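From the methods appendix. Each design record in this collection lists the tokenized structure first, followed by the designed amino acid sequence. Records were kept in a plain field format so they could be parsed without special tools. The example shown here is representative of the layout used throughout.

RECORD:
FOLD TOKENS (239 positions):
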């Protein structure tokens, strides 16, 4: 018997422990995220409307995957040998692999089946099978929880260095999004060359946040120079 967890809590661990003490064989997570998705602006009622009213309801599908993955990771590291069934936004084999790598032994899919039908399960199995071949592994069991050792508290992350962004001119389409984002939401470290219609990065102002790379629609901003912060001993960095 798998006890199913709501994500509408701060910490799932005490609830999962209580379920195990009460006789559950494992935990499945997550259920839907409490939400009001949108409103009819003229009627001033949330959607969907049921005889003039609406309710708080449950959000699911692709958008909840990051929330699900963080709970799976915390369950796997918080409770030793826990049987976990992963749920929440699984659509593709890559999504499935992410849940497995963070500790899920079985997977469940609801919304994607509603959207695309059972045929996606075949694609999930095919994709995972090719992934196993690429990784040189025989069984999905060998992947369970492999990524957990690489999720650490953020205060323990190595913040002794900056990687400056590098614009690949041949890929850049001159849209200016990186310039606007860095100017309005970052550190004003990009200037705009009006003649070449290309961004130019000023490393004296850049803090290495990579907002510019995130917003670039054609992935024209890559990792460039690595520089250790003042007072930090240079060391090997794995990127
Ligand atoms: C229309 C709908 C009905 C659902 N009904 C139930 C339910 O009766 N019991 C339950 O435990 N979860 C229910 N769920 C939650 C799903 O089983 C699942 O936990 C959640 O939607 C996240 O997975 P997904 O992104 O694959 O949909 C429902 C989800 C949807 C979208
Ligand atoms: S990394 Fe951040 S600060 Fe540096 S140029 Fe890009 S957006 Fe600006
Ligand atoms: S966002 Fe990308 S494509 Fe647009 S100007 Fe910047 S580097 Fe070029």
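DESIGN:
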């Amino acid at each position: 018997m798998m006890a199913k967890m709501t994500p509408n809590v701060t910490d799932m661990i005490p609830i999962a422990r209580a379920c195990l003490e009460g006789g559950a064989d494992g935990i499945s997570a997550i259920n839907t995220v409490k939400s009001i998705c949108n409103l009819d602006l003229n009627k001033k009622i949330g959607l969907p409307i049921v005889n003039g009213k609406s309710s708080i309801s449950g959000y699911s599908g692709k958008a909840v995957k990051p929330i699900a993955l963080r709970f799976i990771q915390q369950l796997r590291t918080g409770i030793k040998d826990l049987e976990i069934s992963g749920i929440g936004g699984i659509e593709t084999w890559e999504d499935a692999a992410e849940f497995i790598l963070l500790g899920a032994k079985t997977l469940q899919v609801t919304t994607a089946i509603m959207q695309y039908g059972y045929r996606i399960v075949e694609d999930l199995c095919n994709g995972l099978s090719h992934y196993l071949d690429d990784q040189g592994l025989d069984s999905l069991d060998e992947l369970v929880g492999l990524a957990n050792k690489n999720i650490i508290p953020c205060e323990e992350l190595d913040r002794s260095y900056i990687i400056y962004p590098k614009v690949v001119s041949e890929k850049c389409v001159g849209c200016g999004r990186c310039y606007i984002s860095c100017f309005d939401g970052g550190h004003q470290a990009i200037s705009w060359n009006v003649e070449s219609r290309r961004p130019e990065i000023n490393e004296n102002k850049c803090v290495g946040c990579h907002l510019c790379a995130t917003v670039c629609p054609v992935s024209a901003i890559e990792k460039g120079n690595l520089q250790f912060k003042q007072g930090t001993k240079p060391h090997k960095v794995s990127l």
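APPENDIX NOTE: The domain at 159-228 is CATH 3.30.70.20 (Alpha-Beta Plaits).
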